[in-house]
């Protein structure tokens, strides 16, 4: 039985659906899907069980010189990407709540000092943003006009905020979180991530947490918040040639 909910497994199955299998073995598969959007014309997913899957458009398969039935290892596939000048974005870790952790999350009581933010909190949120660096704001991508926004307060001041936006045509809600530097390491981010994730579950969405694999602080937060690593995900970089 899967560790994760059917929403998660079905979501990732559909990412590689409607695709013609070029290569497949017990550890790595390559498939071609003409319906992929431009920004995802090459994707690679590796799950924690050691399995990997790549999907790409027919145009990209032609550029790489792939043909059905070729014996292609993951290393060979990545070498062909490099030879064709195709660049993948740095890999993201993807985290979800396991079924057990999700059930515990939905049953816990809200913690003091954490609450949902609305348009009425514009001044408070602006003050929060003005106290953060441009780099932190860009990396976190936490916005008041997102689908859901939660914050943690310290002595009446907003010191940590998280926002979510659902993915198009999927019951998955992506999470961003930002804590002001002087308030980090005090549990604010953990409380906010759990609060907004609980809200997403109540609304019928599966909380998703992503971060770069070298962002050790973000990885630690995901684990502290009760999330479990699902795998790594890569998509083609905008810097790749058309």
From TrEMBL:
Lineage: Bacteria, Pseudomonadati, Pseudomonadota, Alphaproteobacteria, Hyphomicrobiales
N-acetyltransferase domain segment(s): 112-242
Gene3D superfamilies: 3.40.630.30
GO terms assigned for molecular function: acyltransferase activity, transferring groups other than amino-acyl groups
Membrane-spanning residues: none
Protein species of origin: Mesorhizobium hungaricum
Full protein name: GNAT family N-acetyltransferase
Pfam families: Acetyltransf_1 (PF00583)
Record key words, sorted: Transferase
């Amino acid at each position: 039985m899967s560790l994760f909910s059917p929403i998660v497994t079905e979501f990732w199955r559909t990412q590689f659906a409607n695709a013609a299998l070029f290569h497949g073995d017990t550890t790595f598969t390559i498939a071609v899907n003409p319906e992929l959007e431009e920004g995802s014309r090459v994707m690679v997913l590796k799950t924690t069980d050691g399995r990997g899957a790549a999907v790409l458009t027919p145009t990209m398969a032609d550029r790489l010189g792939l043909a059905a039935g070729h014996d292609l290892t993951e290393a060979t596939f990545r070498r062909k990407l490099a030879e064709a000048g195709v660049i993948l974005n740095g890999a993201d870790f993807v985290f979800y709540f396991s079924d057990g952790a999700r059930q515990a999350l939905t049953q816990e009581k809200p913690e003091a000092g954490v609450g949902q933010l609305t348009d009425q909190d514009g001044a408070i949120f602006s003050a929060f943003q003005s106290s953060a660096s441009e780099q932190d704001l860009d990396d976190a991508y936490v916005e008041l006009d997102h689908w859901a926004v939660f914050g943690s307060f310290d002595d009446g001041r907003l010191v940590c905020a998280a926002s979510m936006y659902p993915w198009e045509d999927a019951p998955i809600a992506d999470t961003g979180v930002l804590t002001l530097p002087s308030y980090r390491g005090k549990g604010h981010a953990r409380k906010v991530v759990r609060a907004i994730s609980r809200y997403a579950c109540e609304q019928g969405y599966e909380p998703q947490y992503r971060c770069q694999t070298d962002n050790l602080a973000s990885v630690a937060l995901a684990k502290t918040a009760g999330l479990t690593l699902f795998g790594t995900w890569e998509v083609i970089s905008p810097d790749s040639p058309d």
